[in-house]
Amino acid sequence: MALDERLGGVPAADTGDGGPRMGFFTDTSVCIGCKACEVACKEWNMVPEDGLDFTAMSFDNSGGLGADTWRHVAFIEQRAPIGLQESGVGRPDTVDLGIPSFERPGDTTGADERGEFRWLMSSDVCKHCTHAACLDVCPTGALFRTEFDTVVVQEDICNGCGYCVPACPYGVIDKRKDDGRVWKCTLCYDRLGDGLEPACSKACPTDSIQFGELDELRQRADKRLEQLHEAGISSARLYGEDPEDGVGGDGAFFLLLDEPEVYGLPPDPVVTTRDLPSMWKHAGVAALTLFAGVAATFFGRQR
Fold first, then answer.
1. pLDDT tens for residues 26-62?
2. 266 and 280 both lie in a single domain
3. I want to staple 247 with a disulfide (CB 3.0 to 4.6 A). Which of 59, 129, 200, 290 is the partner?
């Protein structure tokens, strides 16, 4: 589907480069953990396999984001009542594809007889921060902001210094062991240039990963959150959508069903280079003070 078709003809908001800011809205309430996004990301971007290790802690075999995992679907098992958490709340009716049906586990069990256990699933990705610390610390310009207001690594310019790795407040950027360079989600920059949506959102069967113009996605997320709250899911919340947060809002934000920490996300992320100007100011003052002290000592001895 072409990009303009995906957006339904919505006028582009000006981001300073003459185009709209593009991004992801991930609705975790409808994520089924199929990992189609992980597979599509790897296939399109030719990302190497990451070991497919059995962690013995979860059905999650990729563990987290890294240089070889640009999309990561978290499987979180909780001993908590399902309650009114139904993935289809406020969404259109399903379409009969003619596939043989079967009775799902729990369909014939009454709500009072169900065990207190639920799954939380979420497809994590680079947040493409508004105030991206990785951009601030990159000495070579390998990291740059595109015309779509996304953050991309140019692997042919990256020198492997690794400054961006600790600078990321989300721990997204990672160095690849075999070549030392850093890698992360590009939001399929090459596909956007051809008017296509990113591979992960294209492959998502439940529309958990939604791609489009960021302002429109925020409006869509607000409506979805309202639907869930009206359905009694009071724990639902948005994460990363606020332009006033510590990173100026994320280009990839989420609807969560629990606290951010449950999903391995920082509760209050802050751009790590926020205090750099004041640090340089204090360092300058300290240097001048030291110089003045040395000069006073030198000239005092000459007398």
1. 999 999 999 999 999 999 999 998 777 777 777 787 8
2. no
3. 129
